[in-house]
Specification:
Strand order of the largest sheet: 1-2
Distance between the termini: 34 Å
Shape: globular
Helix content: over 70%
Strand content: under 5%
Structural class: mainly alpha
Number of helices: 18
Radius of gyration: 21 Å
Oligomer: single chain
Length: 486
């Protein structure tokens, strides 16, 4: 059974089935969303059980698509893509459960969410350059309408900024893909990885194009300015998907395209990329420190954490020691997954808080831990994970990135200062919102209900599990990273 194809297209088929129903009530729409995303999550667990190969791609599914130009519908997995596919299916399933509260044009919302899941899974599993670009671009449409249709006060402006930045930013990638095709005569990404077709100036130009596209998507400083507005104005599930899944398009592309398809050019430009990663990590932390809106604060910490991923990939490109390369890439990939779990939980919790209080301003709260202990302790645990506390998800990822960095480019270890700043901003937020004297305005605020617990608890369990025993996840990642040659 072609499980990869089934997992990719089941969501959009569910959306089309919903559109065909004569009775598209809110209850039916959300039920369809939960069933479709739940089935996809189960399918990805079966895909995980089938395993991957020590080198190259496994579970290949291929059929001719546009034979005249050598383009095929081609899907496959390695440790990098499998870990991101598992994260994607989990976050969409939890987002569907959380979104069951939405009553405004629910069927349309569900169709957009299911289309987004198809685009996201296709992006991570595509092994054809043209197919990858199609999935990559379709995701922009779904997120644009989700922000514009179900966001907050300034949603139209934020959606337009998101679309323009990411759409225009992706055009250089298309040029790079065309260059790879003209040099190789195929869109097969496996061929581009096994024998990079571009060399010299052509490879460097392609790398620059890729870096620009993926820097916008990550986003890295200074092309990050679309992110805070998009996160703040997006509905809660949209923020979770944007941070937990779509930002990973950029870091995934950084490894899959830039590092694997133009390795020599990346090694030459590695110090520049590393510098941008360091600046992004520091800038994101200090910018988050200046925020009073909880959601905007978390948005800027995403710039910070994605900066660590950029540092890890750049160190892998620069290092001449194969063991250090593997440590850097293991840490960078684990950081992608841990960021999805931790930041996804934080955005869910802030959304739940906003649903109750209709504000996200830190100064409006105080002493909430007495009123909503489950929400408060869940936020505190997620915040501790985000600041890199040992025993929680970010620590093993960031430790490996900084270990490899110290060995390869000691000057870049200055990025570790961002951890101190992040710790300060989270401790300040926890003290202002949940501790201290209770604001009686929120004395009767309801705590998490069963649906909300069902959304948050799995993410908290995984946050602890990845922090305490990361080997089960690192085994997936390491299988691929240890076999990469560049």
């Amino acid at each position: 059974m072609p499980l990869l194809t089934l997992a990719t297209f089941l969501p959009i088929l569910g959306g089309l089935a919903l559109m065909a129903l004569p009775n598209r009530s809110d209850r039916v729409a959300h039920g369809m969303s939960i069933v479709a995303t739940g089935l996809v999550f189960l399918i990805t667990l079966v895909i995980w059980s089938r395993g991957i190969v020590p080198s190259g791609f496994a579970q290949i599914e291929e059929i001719a698509w546009i034979p005249a130009i050598g383009a095929s519908f081609r899907l496959g997995l390695d440790g990098l893509s499998l870990s991101l596919v598992l994260l994607t299916s989990l976050l969409f399933f939890l987002s569907a459960i959380y979104s069951a509260r939405i009553s405004e044009r629910a069927p349309s919302y569900v169709v957009l969410m299911l289309m987004l899941e198809t685009a996201a899974l296709g992006t991570f599993m595509a092994l054809d350059g043209l197919l990858f670009y199609v999935f990559f671009e379709v995701s922009l449409v779904g997120m644009y309408f989700m922000i514009a249709g179900w966001g907050y006060e300034e949603r139209q402006r934020a959606a337009l900024m998101f679309f323009l930045y990411t759409f225009l930013g992706s055009l250089p990638l298309l040029l790079a893909i065309i260059g790879l095709y003209l040099s190789s005569g195929t869109f097969d990404m496996r061929a581009w990885i096994d024998a990079p077709p571009l060399t010299g100036l052509a490879a460097m130009l392609a790398l620059i194009a890729m870096l620009f596209t993926f820097a916008v998507k990550i986003p890295a400083f200074p092309v990050h300015t679309w992110l805070p507005a998009a996160h703040v104005q997006a509905p809660t599930a949209g923020s979770v998907i944007l941070a937990g899944v779509m930002l990973k398009f950029g870091t995934y592309g950084l490894v899959r395209f830039a590092l694997q398809m133009t390795p020599e050019a990346f090694a030459q430009a590695g110090q520049v990329v590393l510098a941008f990663g360091v600046v992004s990590a520091l800038y994101g932390a200090f910018a988050a420190l200046a925020q009073t809106d909880l959601k905007r604060m978390i948005a800027y910490t995403s710039v910070n954490h994605m900066g660590y991923v950029v540092i890890g990939v750049a160190v892998a490109a620069l290092s001449v020691d194969p063991q250090i390369r593997v440590i850097a890439l293991d840490g960078a990939t684990l950081q992608m997954i841990s960021h999805g779990l931790v930041t996804g939980a934080l955005f869910f919790l802030i959304g739940m808080l906003q649903d109750r209080a209709h504000t996200r301003e830190v100064c409006d709260f105080g002493g909430l831990l007495g009123s909503v202990p489950w929400l408060g302790w869940a936020f505190i645990l997620s915040a501790f994970a985000s600041l890199g506390l040992p025993g929680l998800a970010h620590f093993p990822a960031e430790f490996q990135v900084f270990l490899a960095t110290l060995n390869t480019a000691p000057w870049a270890i200055v990025a570790i200062l961002a951890i101190v700043v992040t710790a300060g901003l989270y401790l300040r937020a926890i003290a202002a919102v949940f501790l201290g004297e209770r604001n009686e305005k929120w004395a009767l605020m309801p705590d998490l209900d069963r649906r909300e617990m069902l959304v948050i608890v799995p993410l908290l369990i995984l946050t602890i599990l990845v922090g305490v025993a990361p080997s089960w996840l690192l085994n997936i990642i390491h299988t691929t990273m240890a076999s990469l040659s560049f």
